[in-house]
Design a protein that fits this description.
Shape: globular
Number of helices: 0
Number of strands: 5
Radius of gyration: 15 Å
Strand content: 25-35%
Helix content: under 10%
Oligomer: single chain
């Protein structure tokens, strides 16, 4: 697998990547850059009470890496 890279080098073309979120979250999230909002979004981006959508922000992640390849699926006959 690839090494963690600085967030400044992450693709912002809609490619899904793994992001390292700094403290207090200190976790890994699969996300993609969403240009209309100017933020990283995950599958857990939900509408706010006022109807606005929110992402995880652009300053929270510090590092990224490509998603690993999907596992090989073998079909047993």
């Amino acid at each position: 697998m690839s090494q963690w890279q600085p967030i400044e080098t992450a693709p912002k073309d809609g490619t899904r990547v793994l992001l390292w979120l700094r403290a207090p979250w200190s976790c890994v999230e699969a996300a993609q850059w969403y240009e209309p909002w100017g933020v990283w979004i995950t599958d857990r981006a939900f509408p706010e009470p006022d109807g606005e959508m929110s992402g995880i922000g652009r300053l929270v992640p510090t590092h990224w890496m490509p998603l690993p390849p999907a596992p090989e699926v073998s079909h047993v006959g």
